Each structure stands twice: as structure tokens, then as C-alpha cells.
Amino acid sequence: MRFLHTADWQLGMTRHFLSGDAQPRYSAARRDAVAGLGVLAAEVGAEFVVAAGDVFEHNQLAPQVVGQSLEAMRAIGIPVYLLPGNHDPLDASSVYTGELFTAECPDNVIVLESSGVHEVRPGVEILAAPWRSKAPTADLVAEVLEGVSESADTTRVLVAHGGVDVLDPDRDKPSLIKLNTVEKALRDGAIHYVALGDKHSRTEVGGTGRVWYSGSPEVTNYDDVEADPGHVLIVDVDENDPARTVTVEARHVGRWRFVTLRREVDTNRCVADLDLNLDLMNEKDRTVVRLALTGSLTVTDRAALDACLDRYSRLFASLRLWDSHSDLAVVPADGEFDGLGIGGFAAAAVDELVATARADDSEFAVDAQGALALLLRLADRGAA
Q1: Using CA atoms, how far apart are residues 178 and 191, in angstroms rounded to an integer?
Q2: What is the pLDDT of residue 170?
Q3: Cα(52)–Cα(8) distance, rounded to whole angstroms?
Q4: Start and end of every Calcineurin-like phosphoesterase domain (predicted)?
């Protein structure tokens, strides 16, 4: 028996740093990743798909988002089992019980609305632990495993969402999934594979080879938060083996990247190196770059840096300074403004700006640095 394990589609997600046409393209990529599961399923011969929670970004979505999402699921063409998670729980405002969803839901899409066993076909079952609120007060997996025992003729997949106690630093969170409980159920033969959602990076939990987070099929955060996003898991369970041997293969399907670059920039050579690194990055229109820059630059070099960032901000889906992790000082170099060919009051004003720019990190210093940078740019264009 072979199926696809995915999670955390979060359809309808927006990212504040995407502007212009980047946000619509990113949203389309998330839907395309879902629709593309049909091609992958046909290639590998998967019987069905399980989406382990957070199918939607939240329950209050525009009708267009819901309609387009359902069309993407329809395109998969095989049964797709959706588990409500913490972003889209089965509460009073649930998207899954809304008029639009219920009217347009394709025949191949099944919402795992009830806790417990759902038959996929004779001999194959899903054991579901859906979220009914954003803050469960108990381990939903432990609750659904109560009373479930081994069945020699049944292969059972547990589909759940949330943090696992061995990975979560907040051990007092009541909703945490207890790995010991899950592994006991695996040893007892009550379940044979655990499909988890919530963690957006592909992650194996424990050492059984049967407990996995698939991660999100399309990246949602920067690489310091999501180390390994963009995957779908192809899961094989040998139904002819009494032990139900499991094999898991990851397939990378994501097309976007969210990258953090940390650089020391102290000279024009550093600025040129950064320019080269950005230039060599491919698929810029699907790449988001966050820059953590530190160093001390002359006004000339800072102007070159600003010109570099301005150019690439037009090429990348997003390129911006990570302000809380950047610390750039601008210190005018001796003689940096001697060749401008100005004198008299104008020269005295430039000298005053240089002194202010060197003084401290006050608002006046920043303004003086900006004025000097503008002066250099104007001089470069022959306007000064």
C-alpha cells in the first residue's frame, strides 16, 4: 500500500514582505504544489493522499481562495483526506462546514471530521485526530488511541497535527503529542505509520522510521526557521508483511526559497562580493532574500551598497534588510568629498555634514549621511 503524506498547505497564506505581483505568484505556487500531487501520485502509484492539518491558513477566507483551493484538490484525482489543524480547526466558523466548501467540495476530497477510524478500503484505515479548537486541552492523539488494538488484517495510518513532546521546548503544553504513547501503539501493532503536520520542515521523530512530519510542500519561512521545507513523503507499507514494514521516500516539490544572507561589509570589495553573490542566485523571481549586514562603510561605499540593493530588489520576489540583525555604520573617509569641485559656502556646508555624519548614531547623523550619499550620486551623474 502506497500513499502520499503531506501537510501544512496553508492555502490563503500571505507574507507581508511580498509586494506587487509576488504575493499572487506565491499563492499560485502553493496551489500548484497541491494540484501537482496528482502527477506525483500517478508517477509512483499512490492510492490516496493524507494532508495532516492546516490545509487552510485560517477559517476566514475569501470565496475565491476556497474555490481555487478546491479546484487544486480536484486535480489530484485520487482520494484526498484532509485533517483540520490549529489554523483551520472544526470550530463554529470552520471553513469545512461553510456553505461554499460543502457545495463545491470535489468527490475525491474527504474531511476527517470525526475522531477515530475512517476506512479507506477493506484492510486499510485512517485513524484521525482532528482539532476542534485552536487550543486543545489534552493530547488528542492519546485520546484517539484509547481502545484501538491490533488487527491482523488491517493496515492503519494515524493522521495527527501538533507538536511532539520530545521536540517542543514547552513541555507543559497540554496538547503535546506524547511520543511514548505513539511508539507503544506502533509496537502493539495498533497503528503502522504516523503522518504528522504542524512542523514545516521534513522531520523524522524518534527512531522507528514510522513517525514523520512531511513539512509544507512550499516554503513558508526563512531557512533559519525552516531547515528542510518543500517536500512530500511517499510512504510504502508492506501489507503482506505481518510487521507492516514501512519505507519513506521524500520528494522535493517546492519551487520557492526564503534565504537569509549574513555578511560583513566594510569595504567596496565586500559590496562587490555581495553583488556577485546576489547575481549568481538563480530563479530570482521565486526567491526571497533577507540580508543581515554588519560593518562600517564610507559614504561612497554605502551609496554603492544602496544602489546594489535597489537593483536586486527589482529582480527578486523580495529583498530586504533584516533590521534587527543588521548594524551598518557610515563614516565619511578623509578627503572623500575633496574632488567635487565646490567651494565657498557649499564647501563649508559639506564639511559640516561630514562632521555631523561622523558624530554619532543620532537622527542628525543619519540625515547627514543620507545627504552626503545623495551629493555623491548627483556628482556621479554630472549634476553637482
Answers
A1: 15
A2: 81
A3: 7
A4: 1-188
Predicted local confidence at residue 61, as pLDDT: 95
Give backbone dihedrals phi and psi of 184, rounded to 5 degrees, phi first: -65, -45
Task: List where CATH 3.60.21.10 sits in the chain.
Answer: 2-252
Instruction: Tell me the C-alpha to C-alpha distance, in Å, between residue 17 and each of 4, 260, 310, 311.
Output: 31, 14, 15, 17
How far from chain centre, in Å, is Cα 193?
A: 25
Q: Which amino acid is at 190?
A: A
Distance CA 225, CA 213 (A): 15
Nearest to 245 by CA among 2, 49, 55: 2
Fold observed for domain 2-252? Purple Acid Phosphatase; chain A, domain 2 (3.60.21)
DSSP string for residues in 247-297: EEEEEE----EEEEEEEE--SHHHHHHHHHHHHH-S-GGGEEEEEEEEEEE
Q: How far is CA 131 from CA 90, 126, 200, 211, 378, in A?
A: 6, 16, 18, 19, 60
- Assign 199 to helix, strand or coil: coil
Averaged in consecutive runs of 10 residues, what is the pLDDT profile of the chain (384 residues)? 98 93 96 97 98 96 96 97 97 95 97 96 97 94 91 93 91 91 96 97 96 97 93 96 96 97 94 97 97 90 92 96 90 62 64 70 70 64 45
- Between strands 246-252 and 231-237, the pairing is antiparallel
Which residues lie below 8 Å from residue 317, measured CB to CB, with a gap of 6+?
18, 22, 25, 26, 256, 284, 285, 286, 287, 288
What's CA 151's distance to the chain center, in Å?
38
pLDDT at 382: 47
C-alpha cell at 227: 531547515
